[in-house]
Fold these 3 entries.
Entry 1:
Amino acid sequence: MPPTQSESPGIKWHEVTWYSKLGAIILFVGVVPALCFYIGIQYEKVLQSNVFVSAKDVQIPIKNMTSVTNNTWTSSSTGMSLPKGVDSATFTESEYFAKDNHQVYILGCESDCYWVPVAGFDPATFSILISPHGSSTIYAKDKNGVYVWKNSIQNIDDLRVMADPASFAVFLDRQGAPTEYARDKSHLYDEGELFENGDISSFSIVGPVRGYAFFLAKDKNTVYCGSRVVIATADPLTFTQIKFSNGITSSYSKDKAQVYRACTPVPFADPKTFTPIYNVADGYAGEAYAKDKNNVYYRGEVIEDADPATFEGVSERTRSSNNILFEARDKSHLYYAGKQVE
């Protein structure tokens, strides 16, 4: 019987033959493992791009800021003493670290300040990671490890952070400013300390707190205020900072239910209508006063009898017709430091 159109001469489609066995071997031994390997590589690339999307490596090499002479062994930029044996041609300094071609140094201060050589650091790959504004935390790293400088160092071992240098990076806020938070491929860190409770996959920076030297951060479970302080009542999904009408970020934040000043809830505040008042005359970074539909607030406390509808700050401290100094007013009263003065 001749083959039909759906059949080919010599090929038996409905029987197990030597060539069907060979095809199966090629499929499962060669094609499937190769395909799985390719998928795994692509997945790892996607995973890595997601893992580090919020933590940019802002590594900046130490710049040559000084010159020294073999006679005085002092830095021309800082006047600090240098250890004998320093390579004056390659010596550079920045923040609390310095290096030459042979050695890394840290700042030591007793009655005077001076550079102290430290062993085990690699000067060829050593670099400073930008320190947060207003923070005493300065990260650095080389091919061997991660290091952190805080207010004072009592022991060289205090410098070391048990982190992976290859993947270590500092978190930036939305304006690109470095924060005290950092991460590697496995852990979060705050001022060099292991941040055990944070969720690394969802951790992000909310922003700096105006007037304070720390940042707000959050993950899918929790809102954090500075050094691992938890704002227990805050909802991370809806938590955000509140800006002044001119677009500058204030020290206030909110979620769907509450308003917060720095780390503390503001009693009675309405998050939907709450507005900080940018008033440079009040002497507290321009944000001591705020209001919502119900109340006027001074540094998070309700000002009794103040009228939110007409309350406003003044551009500079002013004296009334009765020579009373004031910095805010409503339709009935003048205010200074949160209290009625007229």
Entry 2:
Amino acid sequence: MSKNQLFLGQIILHLLLALTIVQSALADIVFQKSSGSRTLLSKLLKILEYEPPTIGKPERTADGGSRASENPTLLSELLEVLEYEPPSRGKPGDTTDAGSRGSCDLLAIVPVHRYGLTAEEYPTFWFYLKSQPSFSRSAKLELQDEQQNIVYTTTFELTQNQGIIHFRLPQTARPLEIGKEYRWILSYGDMNDEMYTSGVIKRIALEPEIESQLKQANSRERLHLLAKKHLWYDTLTELNQLRRANPQDTEVDVAWTTLLNLLLSQLKCPYLPTG
């Protein structure tokens, strides 16, 4: 057997191995229950980061380096944020007090444990609305501190009938305090047919070095820094801004849609349309 034939055979073997991993993960997507979502995400991460064994010398890049796995894809970085497991916490962050992510009609865009980090004084909250009932166009947002005192409440008009909606805490509200956890509740509908969804948000302090890097970074670099610090709310907001500023960027659009569809799939909700 010639060297070329051996080289081709090795490539085919690695492709078959990668295909086997993909098929296994796809089977999980179709059949597994929502309680096994961490297993699914772990397999997806393995697919995204899979590199076959080196065949000969590694490919060199234009700057003399090699293509290595230390440069993760955008989607793999976002899945790392989604899979981040928060430390053990007391109220209001424990699972019994975090509330409900909601249903397919009104769903909080948060990880399955309903807990997320932010570095912002006035973060943005994200939700999925399946369809807007004809009897109401307004929603109510309530923010509670660790003692379950209401620190902010407002009613706002929805600007769209369905899809992904967001609400940024206004600067007229009390800013989130560093190191504090808050429970937020979004309700929608009338007294006879009210829907609600909720979760927990915690503001953390960033190291001065990271703050300096964020000030000097472009949107893509900011997204990388926020994801690396597991800042769920800030990462999702930055990703949406990057997507809107670069509508032709396929990687960003795929990352946004895939991330949201993974969350929707945990409750067996309809997927977002692609494109």
Entry 3:
Amino acid sequence: MGLEPAETLERQLAPEFSEAEVAFYSSESARFWTQEIQTIDVAFRGNVRQRLWHYTSLPAFHSVVSGRNVRLTNVRFMNDATELEYGFYLLTSIVEENPAELQGAPTLKRDLEAVIDRFKTRGLLFDFYVACFCESPDLLPQWTIYGHQGGGVAVEFDMYRFINDYAAFGDIAHLPPNDPGAQGKGISIRKVEYNESKQREAIRGLLRTFRDSRERADIELPTLAPEKRDDLCQSVLMANIENLLPLLKHPTLSHESEWRVIASLGNYVESHRPFFRSKEADVIPYLEMRRAGHSGESLPITSVRVARSGTQGFERGMRACSLILAANGHRDIEPTPFTYVLRR
């Protein structure tokens, strides 16, 4: 897959579908989130915690604080490249179980099988970008990744200020925490779910909404050729399943207690292309999430912890963090050491 951001589905559909048909796609996509977002919220999201932690390396910490931005990484280039496959594994298993949502709906089941096949052969329709946060600053697995030689940092953010004041794109600033409207505007902050029963209920909720969507397509687009109607409806389903995938992780990873800020370039292709950074032999695409209209102001950081490695690197890391904070509008914050001593 190339590194260019995916086009919006409306733009992809435009050459082949009429204005009314593209409008149907847009309205049905919105319907998914206005009807099912509450189901998903009740199932597992809950309220955004006011304080969340972001684990990173010391060089990345410097880049974030001095640049006054948070980086959102393309999900295709995350450390665990297989994590999106987990959600499709669940979807596949639900289809095979033939739940109530699929009974008496052969067209819906055929659509789902087509979507699963499309994912296996072509991958995602959209490029999603995420920044990861955790509920605790004392997660040893995270420190194991970032903390050796005094080079690991955990940054605590005030997420109420973060989601209200900062945005990857200027027209979505000042959204209240958990506003479902954020989803339609390209960005949201959401809790990752690890409980399989809740994950399955969220997927089945999308299937219920899509079943209704399929029936509306037959009524509202009666002159559309059946194969084109299939393609249009499958695109609606694929796009909205993809919105859910970044929120589903394997139950064995529940210790992460992760939240994610999620952005999709699908809505902003022309003016918001990604940046790129090198990582060993790879190139990683990312977005910079800046406060809309206030790029010079400091980030809503409330505290910082540094890995205690038991080496000279720890003292250097503490001092570097202190200087970085002071130089970028955070003189009132002094870094503190991680509770445990990490040994190589």
